[in-house]
Write a structure and sequence with these properties.
Radius of gyration: 23 Å
Number of domains: 1
Number of helices: 5
Strand order of the largest sheet: 1-3-2
Order of helices and strands: HEHHEEHH
Number of strands: 3
Distance between the termini: 75 Å
């Protein structure tokens, strides 16, 4: 029974790592965030990506999606695979590979109209 519990916890951890996309330092080639910035294509006016951009991708992230990183010896590292997963999640709209999408947002114009109607009704009730 104890062996089953150990296997169960191992597979739960393995499934968690696979779902969350945690960097595997044993199989993925690590690079610092500065190295990542240097290897990315240039943008605006042929300027390189600044390393602080990669740090912003790590925390706080972009549209709720964060770049997976590990801290080794006080230096943040990521991998090309983690960067690919980051780009995939951004391209997918930040919903990951689960395919679960949040409910659609309410129409703000309709909400504004409803709010205006409630205000007018309250003013009528108060005799204004």
């Amino acid at each position: 029974m104890r062996r089953f519990a150990m296997l169960s916890s191992f597979f739960s951890l393995f499934a968690f790592v696979m779902l969350c996309g945690i960097i595997n330092v044993g199989t993925e080639q690590l690079l610092t965030l500065s190295q990542l910035a240097k290897r990315l294509p240039r943008h605006r006016n042929d300027r390189p990506v600044h390393p602080s951009t990669c740090h912003r991708w790590r925390s706080p992230g972009v549209r709720g999606v964060r770049l997976e990183c590990v801290r080794i010896g006080g230096i943040w590292h990521t991998s090309w695979e983690a960067f690919q997963r980051f780009c995939d999640r951004l391209t997918d709209g930040g919903h990951g590979s689960t395919g679960i999408k949040p409910p659609p947002l309410n129409n703000s114009l309709a909400q504004a109209g409803d709010h205006q109607d409630r205000i007018e009704e309250e003013l009528r009730e108060r005799g204004a």
